[in-house]
Structure formats: structure tokens, C-alpha cells
Write a structure and sequence with these properties.
- The protein has helices at residues 2-30, 61-69, 92-100, 124-136, 156-167, 183-199, 202-205, 224-229, 242-252, 274-288, 293-307, 309-324, 328-354, 365-385, and strands at residues 47-54, 78-85, 106-110, 142-146, 150-152, 171-175, 177-178, 219-223, 257-261, 266-268, 390-391, 394-395.
- By secondary structure, the protein is α/β, with parallel strands linked by helices.
- The protein has a domain at 39-181 and 211-267: Spore Coat Polysaccharide Biosynthesis Protein SpsA, Chain A (Alpha-Beta Complex).
- Strands 3-2-1-4-8-6-9 form a 7-stranded mixed β-sheet, sandwiched between helices.
- The longest helix has 29 residues, at 2-30.
- The protein is elongated.
Length: 399
């Protein structure tokens, strides 16, 4: 009897978590503006430099640069694309340089080694160096930083430029459409993206009176004057989660931050396989929680209780009934676990529909929740000890 009551209690906790998660997700998405395509005559006459920091991105760099160069913009808009190769050890630099011979708007910058005696983490040094070169080359009105795994549709820059100019934003950041390819992405990415939407409420972020700042690193469009006034990437040189830090600096210094969904216009496939996904998320999960142990543990176990516990409950109830034999209390507990699992599946259906995602491998959510828990716990260990804290083999503990 005690076992059945414990199982019922766990399911009630899970049901409560599902209700809270679903409600907050819908509330965030209800207030989330969405980047919309614009006509050519709506686009303001501005100059824009697209900066793509790249470290060992031979898989992505050509497709990313070509997509940016294919942007459909009126002649009144000046576009330059800069690839900043951050000491890559693969063919990233060669691929970009070859593409530059075919496209005069593409500039390729071999980024020099990081200054000795200074801590520059992640892509901050490459971004800082590239924007300095771009400014010396004639400057621009806007700086757009995108990751090499981002794919812009032809109308993305026009839409973002028009929206930023219309709203007079100093930083416009788009949450991209996350594309999944391999199994591990389908297991983990929908859960993490949902958690980010829950944790960073769009209406609150876009409220100038709310001090909380945030930006999505794959797509950050700065007014150049504002970028320079906050100190740019140099001001967050040692911060691995530089997008959040830059978004916070924009808010702290009284500038206008605007976050919106880029679904259909900005796409990203963050990782190609499980190894890359594991390394990527474990490097910055803990930092994304401001290196706070209790909130990190609360969040990851909360996600586990929402996405994994119902499936474990069904399995545990079925095994227990088979072992102990049928009983009214056991059958009621099994019914509760099934009802909780159905509630979870319905919530997942709503999430997928609202972000235009395919519901692929939805029935493996339980495994996905367990992976997210493992990612969070491993991230704590890596960040605090430096053991295995790397990105594509480059140590983050000493960079």
C-alpha cells in the first residue's frame, strides 16, 4: 500500500509540473511577437554587416554564408558578410576563402591568437575582432551576429532590419526555428527549447521596465552605436554565455531590447550528432543558470519530473501489478499514471504545434528528460572542476 501511495504522490507532483510548465509556455508564446516578412519598399535604407564567427565549421560555413549573401534586399541597403575564422584546425578558412573569390560582398578574416594575459572565452574574441575590422572598413548602421549553423531565408534580414528600425531597437534578437536531424536532437532539443521559453517570458523581456535581459546568440542584430556604447563583446570577454550577458548589458544601460520568434525565417541546427550535443549543452547549461547550484538542480529535476516521471510511473505500475497481482489500489494507481502520461503527451502536442515543430519521437520523451537531467548534472561538474569542459576540443577552463 505504501508503494502505491508513493507512486500516486509522484504522479500528482508530475501532473502539477505539467500544468505549470504548459501554462507558462503558453503564456510566453501568447505574448511572443513573431518576425514577419516585409515588402521591399518597407525596408529602410541602411547598411548592415553580418558577422559569422567560425571555429571548425567546415560542415556549416559555406551554406551559412551563401544563405546570408542570398538575402533579398533593395539596392538602398548595403550588405557585407564577414566570416571570422577563429583559428580553425579544419577546412573552414579554406572553404570561406574560396567562396570569397566568387562573391565580393564576402570578407574572410583569419582571427589572430587571443591576447596573452587576457581571458577570452567562446566566440567573443572572434566577434570583437571582426566588428573592429568591419568598423575600420567604413562602418555600418547595424551589426548582425549569427552562428555558422544558422540558415537565413532570403527575407530574414529585410524583415529584421525593418522591425529593428521601426521599433528603434538597440538589440533585436530572434529565437530561431530549431531543426532536428539525429535521434539525440529529437530527444533533447524540444525539451530544452520549451524550458527556455518558460524561463524567459517574452512579454517580460520586451518590457523596458523589467530589468531582466536576454538574447538568443544565433541571431543578434545590434544598432552599432548601442553595441559600441555597451563595450561590445569585449565587455563580456570572459563570459561563455555571451548572448545573455549582452542582452543584460543592453537593458542595464537603458537601451531598447526586443526579442521575438524567427520561426520560418531563421533556422538553426545546433548539433550534428550526440557527441556534439552533449559537449555543447554541458559546456553552458550551468552558466546559463548563472552558476547557481540550487536553481539548476531544481530546474533539471523539475524537467525530469515533467517529461520522464509519467513514463516511469506507467512502467513501475505495470511491473508491480504483474508482481503483486491485481488490486483495486494498484489499478487505480495505474490509471493515474496513464492519465498523467496522456496529459504530458497533450502538452507536448501543443508545444510542437505552437513552434511549428514535427512531433517526431514524441514517445521517447521519458528518455529525453533523463538526458536533460544528465546534461545538467554533468555541466555542474564540468564548470566547477574544468574536467572535460571543452568546445570542439578547445579547453574552456583556460581559454
Amino acid at each position: 500500500m505504501i508503494g502505491w501511495l508513493a507512486l500516486d504522490g509522484a504522479m500528482l507532483v508530475s501532473l502539477l509540473g505539467i500544468g505549470i510548465f504548459g501554462t507558462r509556455f503558453n503564456r510566453s508564446l501568447d505574448g511572443a511577437p513573431r518576425l514577419q516578412p516585409v515588402a521591399a519598399d518597407e525596408v529602410p535604407a541602411r547598411s548592415i554587416a553580418v558577422i559569422i564567427p567560425a571555429y571548425n565549421e567546415e560542415i556549416n560555413i559555406e551554406a551559412c554564408a551563401r544563405a546570408a549573401l542570398a538575402s533579398e534586399l533593395p539596392n538602398s541597403v548595403t550588405l557585407q558578410v564577414w566570416v571570422a575564422d577563429d583559428q580553425s584546425t579544419d577546412r573552414t578558412l579554406a572553404i570561406a576563402a574560396n567562396l570569397a573569390t566568387q562573391e565580393p560582398r564576402l570578407r574572410v578574416l583569419p582571427v589572430p591568437p587571443r591576447p596573452t594575459g587576457e581571458v577570452w572565452r567562446g566566440k567573443n574574441w572572434a566577434c570583437h575582432w571582426a566588428q573592429q575590422v568591419a568598423a575600420a572598413d567604413g562602418g555600418c548602421d547595424y551589426l548582425l551576429f549569427i552562428d555558422a549553423d544558422v540558415r537565413l531565408t532570403p527575407g530574414a534580414i529585410a524583415a529584421a532590419l525593418t522591425e529593428a528600425d521601426r521599433r528603434q531597437t538597440d538589440l533585436l534578437s530572434c529565437a530561431p526555428e530549431v531543426v532536428c536531424g539525429c535521434l539525440s536532437e529529437w530527444l533533447v532539443q524540444p525539451i530544452i527549447m520549451g524550458a527556455i521559453a518558460v524561463g524567459f517570458d517574452f512579454p517580460s523581456l520586451n518590457d523596458p521596465a523589467n530589468p531582466k535581459g536576454f538574447a538568443a546568440g544565433p541571431f543578434m542584430l545590434f544598432r552599432r552605436s548601442a553595441y559600441e556604447s555597451i563595450g561590445g563583446h569585449a565587455s563580456v570577454a570572459d563570459d561563455l554565455v555571451e548572448d545573455m550577458a549582452l542582452g543584460q548589458r543592453i537593458k542595464d544601460q537603458g537601451h531598447r531590447l526586443y526579442c521575438l520568434l524567427g520561426l520560418g525565417l531563421v533556422r538553426v541546427r545546433m548539433y550534428q550528432n550526440f557527441a556534439a550535443l552533449w559537449e555543447g549543452w554541458t559546456k553552458n547549461w550551468y552558466l546559463g543558470n548563472d552558476r547557481q547550484l540550487i536553481p539548476t538542480l531544481y530546474g533539471c529535476f523539475g524537467l525530469f519530473s515533467v517529461f520522464s516521471l509519467p513514463w516511469l510511473g506507467v512502467l513501475a505500475a505495470a511491473i508491480a501489478l504483474g508482481w503483486w497481482g491485481p488490486s483495486l489500489l494498484g489499478e487505480l494507481s495505474l490509471g493515474l499514471t496513464i492519465a498523467t502520461t496522456i496529459a504530458l503527451c497533450w502538452m507536448r502536442h501543443i508545444i510542437d504545434r505552437r513552434v511549428d515543430a514535427q512531433p517526431k519521437y514524441w514517445w521517447l520523451m521519458g528518455l529525453g528528460g533523463a538526458l536533460v537531467l544528465a546534461i545538467a548534472l554533468t555541466s555542474i561538474v564540468k564548470t566547477e572542476t574544468g574536467w572535460g569542459w571543452t568546445w570542439r576540443g578547445r579547453s574552456l577552463a583556460s581559454s
